[in-house]
């Protein structure tokens, strides 16, 4: 935008029938990439191709309606003066009336809104409007489906239901689908692959299992599982931070040989608390989560800082005030050499 480049050496391929999420913070370029594919922004370099045919470049910019692309945005973008039926059939004018009606009926059944044909968007709930928007986008069977945080405005229970339905519909439609989200859980639930983005670049592209369990750097590792980031250095089999020590004796974690300072990324399930009267850490609180109980520990001599969240062992739940040591598990703990600024 202006003289500021949005992307640097960015390349992404999405296969037919595949759902790929663009995951990252606001301003990293996710929506811009979607708008380029849709034709809402113009390329200044590079190209976008579909099955080997260039559909956009710096010199070639067909209008959005000329591209085989379906769009679903957070704001629904339904025509308020049209019925549900007319909204869905809007992109089917080339079909005979009987075919349009058949296609509309099939889509409404797929999104669970059979019988809503004559309703106006204003009489529907937010979740129902989003289902109609998805049906309308899928109606012309586009080769590419683009979804820009489509469920951000609905409550969490409905959001989960919509995700499940949308993924099944996208897989059935066999479109190449790209979902923009800043929610790691949504990316995990919806995607065959996740492209983690930051500052106009793709940091890592992989399956949900790959980006969770083999992250390539601190930014990727820190996105998932209520992760925390701590800085420190190695002393023997211990990672030493300003707050306290973490034993690495039962892990394969080691920083790069010449790294003086490293970043430790830990998830609550990647740490173990072991009671000890001489331990560096003390239990400050026990809290409940849907996945179980979590204990909050901090250094013995620094009660107000460096809280570390640790999944509680249900059969050995420590009480507040109990001292102990922290050790890392083989999974859900990651050590990276500190990047120079």
Structure description:
It is a single chain. The chain has 341 residues and is of the alpha/beta class. 23% of the residues lie in helices and 29% in strands. It is built from eight helices and 18 strands. A hairpin with a 3-residue loop joins strand 10 and strand 11 (245-247). Helix 3 packs across helix 4. The longest helix has 18 residues, at 156-173. The mean pLDDT is 88.
The major β-sheet equals: 10 strands, mixed
Query: Helix coverage percent of residues?
Result: 10-25%
Strand content: 25-35%
Distance between the termini: 26 Å
Secondary-structure content class? alpha/beta
Give the total of beta strands. 18
Mean pLDDT: 88
Write the H/E string, N to C.
EHEEEHHHEHEHEEHHEEEEEEEEEE
Rg value:
25 Å
Number of helices: 8
Write the layout of secondary structure elements.
Blueprint: E1 19-23, H1 30-38, E2 47-50, E3 53-57, E4 69-73, H2 84-89, H3 97-110, H4 126-138, E5 144-148, H5 156-173, E6 176-181, H6 184-190, E7 193-198, E8 201-206, H7 208-213, H8 218-221, E9 228-235, E10 238-241, E11 245-247, E12 262-266, E13 271-275, E14 281-289, E15 292-299, E16 308-311, E17 323-328, E18 333-337
Parallel strand pairs: 1-6, 1-7, 4-5, 5-6, 11-17
Antiparallel strand pairs: 2-3, 7-8, 9-10, 9-12, 10-11, 12-18, 13-17, 14-15, 14-17, 15-16
Helix pairs in contact: 3-4, 4-5
């Amino acid at each position: 935008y202006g003289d500021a480049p949005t992307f640097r050496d960015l390349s992404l391929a999405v296969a037919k029938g595949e759902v790929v999420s663009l995951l990252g913070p606001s301003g990293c370029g996710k929506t811009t990439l979607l708008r380029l594919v849709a034709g809402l922004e113009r390329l200044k370099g590079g190209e976008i191709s579909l099955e080997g045919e260039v559909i956009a470049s710096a010199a070639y910019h067909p209008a959005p309606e000329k591209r085989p692309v379906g769009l679903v945005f957070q704001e629904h973008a339904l025509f308020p003066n049209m019925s549900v039926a007319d909204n869905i059939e809007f992109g089917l004018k080339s079909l005979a009336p009987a075919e349009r009606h058949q296609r509309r009926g099939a889509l409404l059944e797929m999104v669970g809104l059979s019988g809503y044909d004559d309703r106006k968007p204003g009489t529907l709930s937010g979740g129902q409007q989003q289902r109609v928007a998805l049906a309308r986008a899928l109606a012309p069977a586009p080769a590419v489906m683009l979804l820009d945080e489509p469920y951000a405005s609905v409550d969490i229970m409905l959001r989960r239901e919509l995700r499940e339905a949308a993924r099944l519909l996208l897989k059935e439609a066999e479109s190449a689908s790209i979902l923009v989200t800043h929610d790691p859980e949504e990316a995990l639930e919806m995607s065959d692959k996740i492209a983690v983005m930051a500052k106009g670049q793709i940091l890592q592209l992989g399956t949900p299992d790959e980006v969770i369990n083999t992250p390539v750097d601190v930014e990727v590792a820190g996105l998932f599982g209520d992760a925390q980031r701590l800085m420190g250095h190695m002393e023997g089999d211990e990672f030493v931070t300003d707050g306290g020590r973490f034993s690495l004796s039962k892990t394969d974690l080691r920083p790069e040989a010449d790294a003086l300072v490293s970043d430790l990324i830990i998830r609550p399930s990647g740490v173990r608390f072991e009671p000890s009267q001489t331990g560096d850490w003390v239990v400050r609180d026990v809290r409940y989560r849907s996945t179980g109980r979590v204990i909050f520990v901090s250094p013995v001599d620094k009660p107000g800082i460096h809280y570390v969240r640790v999944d509680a062992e249900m059969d050995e739940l420590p009480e507040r005030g109990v001292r102990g040591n922290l050790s890392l598990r083989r999974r859900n703990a990651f050590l990276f050499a500190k990047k120079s600024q």
